[in-house]
Amino acid sequence: MKRIAWFLAALLAYVGLALGAVNINSATQEQLESLNGIGPVKAKAIIDYRQKNGRFKTLEEIKNVSGIGDATFDKIKGDISLTGTTVVPKAADKSDAMREKAAAKKEEVKEKATAKKEEVKEKTTEKKAAVQESSTAKKESAKEKMAGTKEKVKEKTADTKEKVKEKAADAKAAVKEGTTKDPAKKAEAKKEAEQSKADAKKTAEKEKADAKKTAAKEKADAKKEAAKEKADAKKEAAAKKKAEDDEKKK
Q1: 24, exposed or middle or buried, with CB in 10 Å at 0-12, 13-18, 19+?
Q2: Model's pTM, two decimal places?
């Protein structure tokens, strides 16, 4: 009978060792990490709690540890104890550690991707606002330049007309004076009047051509600047897409 009792006790001890039990009052960081659902962070929290509050009095007390709730407790309650030697099956230990590490890595990559996405989004918004502001400022500048050019053309045209008017009046007076005096002077005055008129017309045409050339140049410059801004915006969009694609590949 004693032999049977001894055999049963030995068998139960063997089964306990085979299944593995983690003594939460003495287990190391690595041994705690072998538990299902317990990673490096939670294992460290258990040790910190144990150092601060002393030994666990009940298994349920482990739920007082930060990060360990009912769901986690349900996973580990069959694999933990308050006394005894911690026995961890190597295969289970390695598997759980690998799963925990993979989950942590996945979470880290996800957080980095989210942070990068937000950063790219913020930079794109700032760049877009800067481009829009720059474009508006340049449009206003081009508008002011064109208005100034028009005003200058208007002033020059008025001056030219005034000069033509004055020369015509002088020529008319000279012709009139020549009519009452020498016929030769009359012919000369008429010739001068015609020449003055031709010169005035030529000057007006030149000024008009110059103003047109200036306006065309300013328009071309504005168009060139707009094309450059469009190309920069396209380049920025391509850089954003590349950054997002790179994050997805990680």
Answers
A1: buried
A2: 0.32
As a whole number of angstroms, the distance between CA 200 and CA 198 comes to: 5
Q: Are 64 and 49 in contact (CB under 8 A)?
A: yes
Return the number of other C-beta atoms located less than 10 Å from residue 156's C-beta: 16
- What are the backbone angles phi and psi of residue 26, rounded to the nearest 5°? -140, -10
pLDDT of residue 16: 42
Q: What is the per-residue pLDDT across 181-192, written as a single tens digit (0 to 9) for each?
A: 666 766 776 777
Q: How far apart are CA 201 and CA 182, in angstroms?
A: 29
Closest by alpha carbon to 32, among 63, 76, 74?
A: 76
Per the CB < 8 A criterion, the answer to whether 127 and 236 are in contact is yes
Domains of the chain are 2-88 (1.10.150.320), 110-249 (1.10.287)
- 160 three-state secondary structure: helix
User: Low-confidence residues of the chain, pLDDT below 50?
Assistant: 5-19, 93
